[in-house]
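Narrative of activities, Objective 1.

The group set out to show that a structural description can be obtained from nothing but a protein's sequence at a throughput compatible with the screening campaign. Below is one input-output pair from the validation batch, recorded exactly as produced.
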Amino acid sequence: MLEDLDGLTSKMAELAGRMRALREENQRLRTQLATANVELDTLRGRVAGAMERIDALLARLPPPEKSAESTSSASP
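Output recorded for this entry:
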């Protein structure tokens, strides 16, 4: 009977250790996720800014001119 209790005590201690390790890993993963989300938001902002700058540059370009060469070379 005492051996059973000792075995159970050992298993409970092992379970408690595993739970503690899993809690620590969970906390590390939550921290990593939060950091990744901040980085993702930063990158999204940078992409949005780059797209705005590209759109502004495209708006400043003059419209394409239709030349006589391009229309005559397209016809056989």
